# Entry
Amino acid sequence: MGMDAVAQTLDNIIIGQSAPVKDLKRLIKVVAKANTNVLVLGETGTGKELVARALHSESGRKGKLVSVNCAAIPSELLESELFGHEKGAFTGADKARAGRFEMAKNGTLFLDEIGDMPLALQSKLLRALEDKAIQRVGGGEDVPVDFRLICATHQKIEQKVDDGSFRSDLYFRINVFPVQVPTLAERSVDIPLIAEAIFCQMAVDQKIVKPKLDDSAWRELSRYPWPGNIRELRNVLERAAVLFAGEVISGAHVKENLLRLKVPDRREEQDALWAASANLAGINGGEAVNFEQPLPHPSHYADWFSYFDTIDLRRHLRDVEVVLIEAALGKSEGMVSHAASALKLQRTTLIEKMKKLMIERPTPPKSESGTKLNPNLPGKG
Ligand SMILES: Nc1ncnc2c1ncn2[C@@H]1O[C@H](COP(=O)(O)OP(=O)(O)OP(=O)(O)O)[C@@H](O)[C@H]1O
Ligand SMILES: [Mg+2]
# Structure
């Protein structure tokens, strides 16, 4: 990796000012200076690689950051990649070659996707860490190594330890300091800052004309759950730059064209305008569903008891189920199997739930009624 040209500050590497990200940066500062092994944990696309880069840059180690993605290199090549090899060690090894362990001298070795390292290599890695020395493939001599080890994984390594596919002694060795990277949903307030940074990078790399996002667009982005985290956000923003170069993006665009990959057409534009003007005029008025309100993230419920003393948990969960099931049925125009797959339920499970919750199928297309409200439902508490 050649990231060493410009001295990068922690705030440049890890964009964001949300509370969880501030905590993360504080932790990185402290941990970077200690020479301990670090295990970076976090869902896919959360920026684990950037955390490794930040740890290296804050560590002040003179050597390079050397990265190896254990999942991307075929296991039969991984060993010589890490340990290097002597001339003639295997067919095709026409010269001796230093491995990544040696290349990381006085620097940092980043083993990404460590959970995918084959068992045989895990033993060799453990020995290298214990001896602070390695042997190249096909070589007999000990070569001293001096690197700071950072590992990352999006997998549950404990589970792999339990089922025997990851050595527990290695796990304890690499996990001296776990650093958990928050999901994008936990730090959705950072989205505008991250988006700005990503648009700037794209403007340099790809000469794009930045689109503008209006308030409803930002709201849509912040309520979306982002299963692919920042990598997914980056993809969405790239799509935005292509579909809406220099234009204004609305919440409807975000939902229809950016999160769902539909190319905008005039009709949709008009629908969006209608929706917007209806909101302005208060036509939806009264106690109609407020579409601007994001679905609460489950973690938001953690604050409940700061404001209230009780919650009728069963009733609340049931209400949520009813509303989502009715919405799915409404959208599928009463097609139970479609609704079931939208809800990621088995069809039979959905039917059972509909019976139990006394939810009726909305009467198909002709009727104006859309989702029929269930008369047996208690009002929203
Ligand atoms: N704070 C951030 N600001 C801007 N871009 C970011 C940030 N964090 C991550 N990214 C970008 O998101 C993408 C994913 O980051 P990265 O590759 O580090 O994720 P990861 O956690 O290693 O994911 P995986 O587990 O899938 O390997 C990269 O393009 C990265 O540049
Ligand atoms: Mg990664």
Summary: The two ends are 56 Å apart (CA to CA). Residues 1-5, 276-293, 366-381 have pLDDT under 50 and may be disordered.
